[in-house]
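Obj.: predict assembly geometry.
Materials: sequence records (below).
Method: joint structure prediction, all chains together.
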Amino acid sequence: MVLLLFAVHRLEGAELVRAVALVGVMLIVRRASASAWMSRNLGGTGLHPARRQARRAALVTALALLAGAGVISLGRGDALVLAAGVAALAMATVPGVLAALEYQAARACARRAPLVGTGAAAAGALLVSGFALLLALPAFAVLAPVIALALGDAAGLFVAWHRPHPGPCHALERQPSSTPLEARPRPVAGGVATVALVGVMQLLVLTGGLHWPSGTANLDLLASLAVLGLLPLIAAGTVPALVIPGLTAGRREAVVPGLLLGATLAGASILVVTAVPNRLVGLGDPRLAPLAPYFAVAMAMLGLSQLLIHHRVASGGTRTVLILTLLATGLHLALASTGTGPLAEVAVDAALGASAVLLVSLVVATAAAAPFAFTLPAEGSDVRLRLVGPTLIALTAAAVFVRLVSLRPVWLSEAATARLTEGSFSSMFSGGLNGDAHPPLYLALAWVSRRAFGDSALALRLPSLVAGTLLVPLLYVMGKQLYDRRTGLLAAMVAAFAPPLVWFSTQAGATAVAAVLAVASLLAAHRALRRGRLSDWALLGLSEGALMWAHQLAVVHLVVLNVVVAVVFLRRPRSSHGRLPAQAGWAAAMGVLVVIAAPLLVARSGLGPPRMLPPLEFATRAAPGAGTSVFPVLGTAMSALLGFHPADVNSRLLAMWPLGILAALLVLGRARSPRGAALLTLAGAPFAAMFAAQVLGFPRSPAFALGWAATALPMLALLAGRAVSVLGGPWPRARMLGVGVAALLLVCLADQAVRVRPRERFAVGPVIERVGHEAGAGDLVAYEPAALRDLVRYEAGAADARSVAAVDEERAALTRHERVYVVAAFALGSGDAGVKRTVTLVKELSATRPLVQERGATDGQTKVWVFGPERNTASGTDR
Amino acid sequence: MSQPADPRLLAPHWNPADGMVRRSRMWRWLVFFNMPLAVWYLSWLLRPERISNHLLYGLLVGAETLNVVQALGFWWTMSAVRHRPSRPPFTEPVAVDVFIPVYNEPVEIVEATIAGAARLAGNTRVALLDDGGNPEMEALAARYGVDYVHRPTRGGAKAANINWTLERTDAPFVAIFDCDHVPDPRFLEVTLAHFDEKVAFVQTPQYYANGRGGGVAEASWSQQALFFGPIAMGRDNLESMFCCGTNVVFRRSALESVGSFSTDSLTEDFELSIRLHEEGWESRYLPQVLAAGLGPEDMASYTSQQLRWARGCLSSLPRIITARLPLRQRLNYLLSALHWLSGWTLLIYMCFPVVRILTGAQPLDVASTDQFLLHWAPYFAGGMATVTLASAGTYTFAAYALMAANFWVHIVASVLALFRRKGSFVVTPKQGAGGRQIRPVAPALAACAVLVGVSLVGLMRDQSPATINNVAFASVHVTVLLAGSWAALRGAPRPAAATVPAVVEGGLAATGPASPAGAEPVV
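Observations (raw structure tokens):
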């Protein structure tokens, strides 16, 4: 408190109020967590002996911590340092309370070791902070007690653990309960777990201070990260531990629900942390935004580790926990001290690596403690599945949530969609038939959506959003029909969080709709083959026809699907009942397909023009000239599972191809299912087609974007669900594996949301979006290159939008407008001529108008010049 | 009875001939495609410009050559699988001596075998060949009315035990069962029907009834199923099936023509088969489960068994090379022996990421690994598909991992064979010992430690794609090795036949062993 006051006296006004409020929050948190801990672990000696009250107190703790983190994240500058200190102390609340209670109980039981430990903690805190004060490093003074407290607490409990008191001491031991496991005394188990974990976590955060020379600016950044990291840490670790009491009692059946809850909350909190610095707060330091999600992921993994530590310690695996924690700490120190580059990045990388190692090793340790055998789950092994409906609803809701928070500024191709859907239905239809790469089904849906919901970006993307969300329940049904309910649920989970599906669900384009129709056609084919009803065959024909109208390369999916149907027919005995009607049904379905698709093929003279996607639309390096190189198509296939990532990440992920050998070995003896073979073929065919096109030099450019493999995306999700189901074995373990996969997908999603900003692509979006907000009627927006046309016209529809080249040709246009915005995105391929044109225009405007603002995007390639009214005009009032 | 039954008395869960002929048509197509894929890969690999480090390249080429030879041999054997028409049961009253050699195995394991042998259809004379001189065995033999044979000296192990008894019996046919293999009553009726004039022995599958309980037994069974499924069926058509020491019937005159079993070899049955084929005798393999036994239930048992087989087969290499055999038989014996060098290839593959990370040296000089992938992946995928199809899913990751975790067995065996060190015949334990068994997997764990340590060193140095690629290779090895060692680290499961006494008390002798045709357990 003294240290806090020392920091507070430097503040004024609103910052002071905020700081005091934060101190208040910290005190509430401290009190609530003390109550919860005492009630849970010390039985009648606490302030709230009843378990119900303890849970209520725990809930208050969680909410208070969440609120605290939210408030803290609003801080700026110096206040942020203070906020970080406060948050760090709040973070130290649990070990602090534990230490205090240990101290009290030890005194009551005459145990010396904890007394020594907590005494050492207090002395250490004073010593370190005193030195810090002497060195005039107030920021460090705020953080120092946290380190000292954690180390001191850990030392005290370590001593207590190694020198247990010989006699019984009821104040320190868990109260007996009805379950045999809880009946075993586990003195200070929760304490050891929490302290060990929090100690590691604090070290993870703060050993970035080893790179101290770079000064307080870096510390500010680290402190900001520490603040933001609190949310996922608490969400993934503290909240599930409090809500699911079986975790701390060492019950195995509580682990998976705990991890599920933790992973879900972690995912949500990561997205919040990702969104907060970017959208809502816009904290001063630009380095915070790209680092925060990664640190949030690290903290989330740490939180999940905390759950496993609770479990392992309570079930007797304390030694394992200590060893793994020490290993993780050692690894972190090694990574932090040997890393090169900016301090904050090293610290975050080290935290990420160490927490990942800790989590993985704890998962392995937990799994190793469970009965284990490489056995294939028997048919009907999902009999223990419960709450399927609510889980599916929750997954669908989660899918909607992640899609909504992943919305991006409109991009070129989407702007083209907006342009095509502006006019009448017939103009949209005719424009779409030959003006877009894909057939016009999406345009038609977007046209209807815009008429119904307006011209917002959300309305433009609504068909994709709906289709992408529909995939979740649809894949459940598909998985259930092909295999079992557990496969369905796991496939639905993958569909909810798979980064590429999330991406395409938030893009105004044909991919998500094509993916849904691909699943629908497979579902219809499966039902038709199984039941043979005419309605099923009709549905097959309709879905296939719709798919043809949705996607240019849907033909690959349809060919494979119908070959599969033909193989099924061939494998059936000639004398089997219903063979003839089924064949007639199939013929009818083909007839429906032909009737629906024929006009399209005629109107587009085949599959349509090989163009239209704007440059850099996620084209991999694969291209007609790429020859037999397999990495481009492998990279595209990898994106189909893990989403889009920066080039360095992609190359590292691709370097992990030997894991494919392991995957092949793992499915040895298990790849006997014709259904699996069919799914694999459906998933692989689009990529094989891409590779063939690449080798043959087929002139379709850029045909190698992931969007071309739209029909493969849901098949891959289904296969992933099946793989988890099979490799997981019994449902509790498969569920646990599913949680791991979900966590991996969420990490990829966070990376995709934050770091995948092909600069040449995404930097332009927000810039033009802002211009669109500012520019009104009477203003001119001159853009370079011409490819920005649709985007500028969509965003700045009220203004007069012209390319720089057009303005160059008609100089008179410059005099008719009040403000002139010059937008240049050189990375989009302007060429030297474009640069020259733009520079000339800017110079010319500078001579006649005041330059109100010159701004740029982070890529350095996108610039905006805002010119005010001409100096010699009377009407020039600055708006 | 609520007690679980002895798995050997249950109906077998495996039929090697089931769907084999239908599948063989498919894998012949696969083999047709695999051959050019292998050529495609080798023609890329063996170009001089691929050499980066000469030593490592040489090791890689050596390992890949052995693998390709094994793969070609496997595909060749696969393509030879044919359907052998079944014959009506042999019901003439021909005398058959039934030998069950034992040496200090648990009585409760042997009892079911004796009971089954005693109920064999035909004119049989069952003998319990006890090298241990156990009075309980003698009492057991007396209880079931079979002969008890205990020779005065113990030299020469199982082979000498059988030879000694052969000299004191005279039936024209001799059936041999390991002490844990419970024969079906129809065993002789089915096997004797296939004794054409030149047939020396008829072998049936060595089926592990405990092969569904997980752990070592299941993985070990998975390996057996591949051998006694498509491989043995293919070899049968190539006239190259060798005797496996149990569940087999010999023509006495054939045995006598080659001087019976060799007592100098650890795999006396393998050696005997070579001599029989040299003398022009033929062999038959019947893909029908007619006896149910127990596979090794813990890692120590498995390792002991594998070491004996590996040493025996590798020691026979000179004998195979000099044998007067037709080329196809010689090649088949060679392939059988060379299989036991696979551990060397695994060791070499494990060394590559270690050397690359520590020194930067690598075997191949390629600008990008995608060209390696382009040439190697189709060959690998074709091979995996063929194994999967041929084994009908019985060969699993656990089987491969178990073999990989025991890579050191192959290395030790080949070194011992190279230096002609004499080995003693160690009987494969018939019951799991229980508890953790670190020693058999210590080499695998050491390899894991090295791979993990080097990977960490590499990652701390840099996280370039090249390092990550090698770390990924190391991860594959570590995963496989740990998976293979898992059973030893977890401890062996409860012995499968531990419930036999309870079953016996329930009246095994009265009910007899299960019929393979029946789906229900006997008790």
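Conclusions so far: Chain A touches chain B at residues 331, 334-335, 338, 368, 372-375, 628-631, 634, 651-652, 654-659, 661-662, 664-672 (CB under 8 Å).
To do: check interface contacts against the pulldown list.
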